[in-house]
Amino acid sequence: MTATERQLAILFADLSGSTSLYERLGDREALAAVDSVVDLLRSCVAARQGHVVKTIGDEVMAAFADADAALQAATDMQHRIAALPPFGETRLAIRIGFHFGPVLEENADYFGDGVNTAARMAGLAKGGQIMTTAATAGTLSPDLRQGIRALAALAVKGKQAEVEVCEVLWQGGENVTMLAGGRQAPRVETVLRLSHGGRETVLDASRPSIQIGRDPALGIALEDRMASRLHGRIERRADRFQYVDLSTNGSYLTLDGDAETIVRRDQLTLRGRGKIAFGHSATDPGAEVVAFACEYRARES
Questions:
Q1: Which of 5, 120, 183, 283 could disulfide-pair with 179, CB 3.0 to 4.6 Å?
Q2: What percent of the chain has pLDDT over 70?
């Protein structure tokens, strides 16, 4: 059978950190978690008139008629996963990449550069992220295009020229996702819930920032001697929360599903759930930790 060329949006979504999930939960419970995620992803694809091309373990490959449908399905997926209860003590997270362009169709499967580019976007994403290309963003309807942030031109394996990569800002914000039939999803805002020493602090539009360190006057006062007096701060930027490290020894951030990351005199966007340790790893004995969780609530009109 001769392959035919079509213009489609190809999307890849997979469970971030699934290998460590099996180690933490055991085979039976981890398999149940993976199956529940795959079923949820399938339902999101169908709701946006796409179709699942195939599944490979914890990865779903789907095709859509246009980039709008792929972006809306990807956003649905992230919101649905974020709302799931933890499996044991493990919060699930998915990473998603999609690209719109020419693909080759043969025997109900798709091949070619468009498929490869979509897979590369998924490979660049971390848990809780949606990545696409600037070329794809340019085909989006104006409302959806407002929720795209350009990142950089990156070298992508298999591509001779650098690819302009963008991130979809799906966590709340002023942008409204259009539902089937032209209805609008309710506006939501991101709320960051912080837990430390039995005390909970909530950051939102009314309290957009907090400082953390050994100074007792700070919003979150630490006792860990590896921490600086002003170790870092969390601040709200366009309905997303950014952790900014100001310390000597750095901060150790763990986003659920990802490995621990060291941030030193730099910043990182907080997504989903995770924890921050100050001056040394959260796995070290006696490490003091601030846990965080991004949540969503209806925005007051």
A1: 183
A2: 86
